[in-house]
Specification:
The protein contains seven helices and twelve strands. The protein is of the alpha+beta class.
C-alpha cells in the first residue's frame, strides 16, 4: 500500500477517528499499521465512542518500532464539536476560547494524586515536582518526563509534557496547580500519568519540599545527577576564581611585607595601639625608638 497523505507534513485533509483505549485511533484513511492521533492546537476533542470526522493539517507523522503504534500529530481546522457530544461529555469538555476558559474553572474537576485513575478526563491537580527523569526536546515523543508528589511525599504519580508544549521551569520541590491536565492511563507500562498538554495552565504555589527521609534533606534526595553537578560546580566557584586570577597574572610574583613583629619598634606600636595611644607622639614610644636606633 502506498503511503497516504497523512504521512506528509503540511498536507490538509479529513480523518475519521474513534476514541478507543484512552486514545484517538485512526480509522480513515485506512493504513496497515495502528495509528494514534494526537490533536494539536487549541481544540480539545471530546471523547466519543462513535467515529467522527475532523478536518486538519498534518503536523508530523511518526513511525514507531515493534508493536508500538504510529503517531499522527494533527492540527484541526475550524473544528466545531457536534451538539450531542457537548451535552453527553459536559464534565470532560474544556472550553477553549480565552473568554470562556476562566468561566470553566469552577466546573473543572479537582483531583488529588491518589484520586487519579486514568479516566481520560481533564482535571485540576495540585502537586509538588518530585523529580525530572529526562528532557528530550528534540525527540518526537514527550518533551519531559518526571514524577509529582504530595506535600508529605506519601503519593507519587508520573507526569509527561507532550511534544511542543510551552511550560514554566518545573523545578524540583516547587508546588504547582496544574489546570486542565489529562488523567491518563498509559497501557504499555500499566501506569497512571498526569499528561500536560497545550491546554494546561500552570499556577506556581511556591516551594514546598516534602518531609526529609533517610536522614537527608528533601532537596538532596530528589536532585538528579545533572542538578547535583551544577550545584557542585557552583560550590567550587571560589576555586574557579583563583584559576582565572592565575591565568591573568601569569608568572608574576607578589610579596606581602609583614610588620616588623619582632622589633622593639613593632612591639611598641602594638602596645600603644592596644592602649589607645598615638605612637607618633607618645614619649615612651619615642624613647623606645631611639634606643632601637642606638
Amino acid at each position: 500500500m502506498s503511503s497516504p497523505w497523512i504521512t506528509e507534513q503540511g498536507k490538509v485533509g479529513t480523518v475519521t477517528v474513534s476514541y478507543t483505549d484512552d486514545n484517538w485511533q485512526l480509522k480513515e484513511p485506512a493504513v496497515d499499521d495502528n495509528v494514534v492521533c494526537l490533536f494539536l492546537g487549541d481544540n480539545e476533542i471530546p471523547a466519543s465512542n462513535s467515529p467522527i470526522q475532523i478536518k486538519g493539517e498534518v503536523s508530523r507523522y511518526t513511525i514507531s518500532g515493534g508493536d508500538d503504534p504510529n503517531y499522527l500529530m494533527f492540527t484541526p481546522i475550524d473544528y466545531e464539536p457536534a451538539s450531542e457530544d457537548s451535552s453527553s461529555h459536559e464534565s470532560k469538555e474544556t472550553h477553549h476560547s480565552t473568554s470562556s476558559q476562566s468561566s470553566s474553572e469552577d466546573t473543572l474537576p479537582r483531583r488529588t494524586l491518589s484520586e487519579l485513575s486514568g479516566t481520560g478526563e481533564y482535571v485540576s491537580v495540585e502537586a509538588v515536582v518530585n523529580n525530572v527523569s529526562w528532557v528530550m526536546k528534540s525527540s518526537t515523543g514527550p518533551d519531559v518526563k518526571g514524577s509529582l508528589t504530595t506535600e508529605d511525599g506519601s503519593e507519587k504519580v508520573v507526569f509527561i509534557v507532550e511534544n511542543g508544549v510551552s511550560h514554566p521551569y518545573l523545578e524540583v520541590g516547587k508546588m504547582f496547580e496544574f489546570r486542565r491536565v489529562r488523567d491518563h492511563y498509559y497501557r504499555k507500562d500499566d501506569q497512571i500519568q498526569v499528561q500536560i498538554t497545550k491546554q494546561t495552565d500552570f499556577i506556581e504555589k511556591g516551594t514546598a519540599w516534602p518531609s526529609a527521609r533517610d536522614g537527608r534533606s528533601s532537596s538532596d534526595t530528589r536532585l538528579s545527577s545533572s542538578q547535583r553537578s551544577y550545584r557542585n560546580w557552583a560550590s567550587s566557584s571560589s576555586e574557579n576564581l583563583h584559576e582565572i586570577a592565575a591565568e591573568m597574572i601569569g608568572d608574576k610574583e607578589f610579596t606581602v611585607q609583614e610588620e616588623e613583629q619582632d622589633s622593639a619598634v613593632g612591639n611598641a606600636k602594638k602596645m600603644a595601639r592596644s592602649q589607645n595611644r598615638d605612637p607618633a607622639i607618645d614619649p615612651r614610644f619615642q624613647a623606645s625608638e631611639e634606643d632601637d636606633e642606638n
